[in-house]
Design goal:
Blueprint lengths: L7 E3 L1 H31 L7 H25 L1 E3 L15 E6 L4 E7 L10 E3 L3 H6 L7 E6 L2 E11 L1
Parallel strand pairs: 1-2, 4-5
Antiparallel strand pairs: 3-4, 3-7, 6-7
Helix pairs in contact: 1-2
C-alpha cells in the first residue's frame, strides 16, 4: 500500500458498487466522452468552443475518479459478516441507539467510502461512528457535534 493512500474499509456490497462504477467509467463513460470531444472538434475553432471545453472538463473529472476508484480498490479491506461482532460495535455493525429525549435511531457503521447518512449508514470516521466503535450494549456515549453535545445509549448491536 502506498504511504499516501489510506485503507478503504468496505462491505462486500460496497466493494461490488465501486467495481461496477469503475467498470462503467472505463467501458462506457470514456467512450461517450471521446465521442463528445470528436464531435466538438468538428464544430471548428476550439478556442471558443464551449462544448469542447465541457467535454474536456468531464474527461478530466472522469479520469480523476477512475484513479481514485483504482486506489480505493487497491487498498480495500473487505469486512465480511464473520468479522462483525454482535457484542461490541465494529465496522459493519448495525447499532440501535436511544438519545436523551427517548428517540430511537439505528445506524450501520461503514467505511467512509460507503457512508450515506440519508440511508442511516455512517462512517467509522464520523464523530458518532468514532464514539460508538468498541462500545457494548447498555453503554452511553457522548458525542460532540456542531450543534452541541449528544448522549446516546446503545440498545442493541447486530451484524
Amino acid at each position: 500500500m502506498d504511504e499516501h493512500e489510506k485503507e478503504t474499509i468496505l462491505t462486500p456490497e460496497g466493494l461490488r458498487k465501486l467495481e461496477e462504477e469503475l467498470d462503467f467509467l472505463k467501458s462506457v463513460k470514456r467512450k461517450e466522452i471521446a465521442e463528445r470531444i470528436k464531435q466538438a472538434k468538428e464544430f471548428g475553432d476550439l478556442m471558443e468552443n464551449s462544448e469542447y471545453e465541457d467535454a474536456k472538463n468531464e474527461q478530466a473529472f472522469t479520469e480523476g475518479r477512475i484513479l481514485m476508484l483504482e486506489a480505493m480498490l487497491r487498498n480495500a479491506k473487505v469486512i465480511n459478516n464473520h468479522d462483525v461482532r454482535s457484542d461490541v460495535v465494529t465496522v459493519g455493525s448495525t447499532v440501535r441507539l436511544v438519545d436523551e429525549t427517548g428517540e430511537e435511531l439505528s445506524y450501520t457503521i461503514v467505511g467512509s467510502a460507503e457512508a450515506d447518512p440519508a440511508r442511516d449508514r455512517i462512517s467509522n470516521e464520523s464523530p458518532v461512528g468514532r464514539a460508538l466503535l468498541g462500545k457494548r450494549k447498555g453503554q452511553t456515549v457522548t458525542v460532540e457535534v456542531p450543534a452541541g453535545t449528544i448522549r446516546y445509549t446503545i440498545r442493541a448491536i447486530k451484524r
